[in-house]
Structures are given as structure tokens and as C-alpha cells.
Amino acid sequence: MPSALPDLSACRSALIIKPSSLGDIVHTLPSVHLLKRRFPNLAFTWLVNPAFASLLGGNPDLAGTLTFPRENFRGAAGLLRFRRWLKNLPSVIRPDAALDFQGLLRSGLIARASQAPVCIGFSDSREGARWFHRTVIPVDPNAHAIERSLTLPRALGADGLLEFPLPEGSAPAALPDGTVPPGAVLLHPFSRGKGKSLSAGQVVRLCQELAPLPVLIAGRADTGTAALPGLPPNAISLLNATTLPELIWLIRRARSVISVDSGPMHIAAALTPNVLSLHTWSDPRKVGPWHPGTTVWKAGRLMRSGELDPEVCGQDALFPDNAVPTVAAWAHQTAR
Questions:
Q1: Which residues contact 163 (CB under 8 A, 6 or more apart)?
Q2: Which residue of 27, 104, 257, 325 could cross-link 145, Cys pair, CB 3.0 to 4.6 Å?
């Protein structure tokens, strides 16, 4: 790393390279906010996958977004399309600085292809991405994802209170009466990550245990899982029926949120402390809810995020059926 860090105050524009995933983008929001406060004249453009672009809609820290069509670059033919996309990038945007928060080979290639004179990445970048960074910020690989991101603005003299500029969202068209019932629990039970999701049976039983509290079930699920036979009358399934802005709107109005480790969980933790995050194999010290007042279930234990037991966090454990009453009891306690 150079002896002197680059001076972003001499730059007019910067490209934020963090196209995915949903939770990772949420983790990066406070860093970009601090950078904008420190360098108010710097115009930030965020490179983002189309599926997550609405998360950045109306963000006052950004001059705009640039779509990264990741799905177009899969397979052998996709590699050729990616190469052409990289070649064309300087004709679309040529920033003074490229900030690679992603730290993968493709993000390093994007940073270099942008022809930005200032190119900053992290010491734990993978797949050879560091070779494309002119400045490397040392980070603790065991730190929470938000702390990792914050090392960049802090190294450049930007620090302060953490804020998550998230959109207000919009009411789901599929929501009966267009209102969230008072005291509602928002349940996000499924994740793309292997071994993170609840079973359909556990979802139904949890809703039964949560009665009489109203439950809104949101997120994505395959067709068979989304059926949820036996769902009690206090629960409304909105599975596969909400957009990202609609999910944010629901989170803002729910009394509490119960979620598996996922992007929506991180959105919830950015908006409210009334979050219970369910972790199986993932370590909540690194990827758990950030707010210290939130709660984590891990290996049979409920813990405050600010008081995590390292020994418990290091264990791998599936979510068992007998943990359902414990989770429901947390929601009933939160509702009081």
C-alpha cells in the first residue's frame, strides 16, 4: 500500500463497486454515507445488479446508479459479453476514483476497466482482485461485514454516526386492505443460502405458536414450499408476492421481524431493533444483525447482538423443531 492515501477531495466523481448481494449492499450504505459527508462535492455512482437497484432509489448520497447485468455474463458466451461490457465501460462512465467494496475478480476488473486514476480495495479481496487496486486498505478478515466496509471511509478521514439511507418503500398490492395489522410479526423464513431456511412445517407451526399475533409471511420460495398447507387464520402469506420496495414498506410497519440469515434480515436490522435473526451455519459475529439491540438465535441460544458468545457463534446447528416455541415466545415478549 502506498505511504500516502489518495486525497478524494481532489476527485469529482467516484464509482462504488458493490453490485450484490442484497445484504452486502445494505452493509455498504453507511460507508458511502460517511464518504459523502466527508466529501460533499464528490458525485458517487453505484454499480448494482438490476435486482437490487430499487434499494438505492432516492438515495441522497448518490448521483445515480449504473446497472451491472450479471445474469448476461453467465457461461462461456457470457464471458465474451462481459469482456465487451468492460471495454465499453469508459464510454459510459470514467470516474476519478473507483472504490471496490466487492473484492472479487470481476469487481477488480471493473475497477481497472473504469480507468479511474484512484482505485481502492481491501486487503482481504479474493480471486486476485488486489492486483487491480492501486491502494489497498488493511482489514480484519474476522470483523463484521459492516466494520470491514467502514475501514475504507475511516482510513480516508470519514467517520461518524452510522446511517442507512433506505427508501420508504411502497404498500404491497397483494396486502389485504392495504394495511399492516396492529402488532404484526413479519416472518421471512426462506433463504437462497443452503441450510438457512425453515421447513414449511416449521413455518406453519411457528405461525400457530404466534397466535393471536397477526403474521405476515414474506420473501421468496419455490412453488411447492410456498403452499404452506395448514396455515392458521392469524397468518397471511405474501410469499412471491412482494417487490423489494414493498418488503421494505412491510418491515417499517411490522411490530417485529423474525428472519433467517438473509438480505431482508439486514434491511430489518438497519430499521428496527425488534429483529430476531435465525442462524444455522453462519457466524453472527461476522454476518449477524448489526444493531446491538437485535436478537440472534444460534445453536439453541437467544443472544443480544451486542452480547454474542464466541463459543456458541462458532457452532453449526440446524434449526430444530423444538426451537419454534422459543422463537414465538420472543415475539410475544416483544409485542408487550
A1: 29, 30, 33
A2: 27
CATH class of 176-335: alpha beta
Cα separation, 93 vs 95, in Å, equals 6
Topology (CATH) of 8-155: Rossmann fold (3.40.50)
Q: What is the pLDDT of residue 3?
A: 44
Q: Could you tell me the pTM of the whole model? A: 0.95
Q: What one-character DSSP code corresponds to residue 32?
A: H
Please check whether residue 120 is in contact with residue 130, taking contact to mean a CB–CB distance below 8 angstroms: no
Name the phi and psi angles at 15, rounded to 5: -105, 120
Helix orientation angle between 263-271 and 22-38, rounded to the nearest 10 degrees: 40
Tell me what pLDDT residue 193 has: 83
CB 186 within 8 Å of CB 65: no
Q: Which residues of the chain have pLDDT under 70?
A: 1-3
What residues does each domain of the chain span? Answer: 8-155, 176-335
Kindly state the helix (H) or strand (E) to which residue 329 belongs, with its residue range: helix 324-335
State pLDDT tens for residues 55-87. 999 999 999 999 999 999 999 899 999 999 999
Burial of 6 (0-12, 13-18, 19+ CB in 10 A): middle
d(CA 237, CA 54) in angstroms, rounded, equals 23
Q: What kind and span of H or E run contains 97?
A: strand 97-100
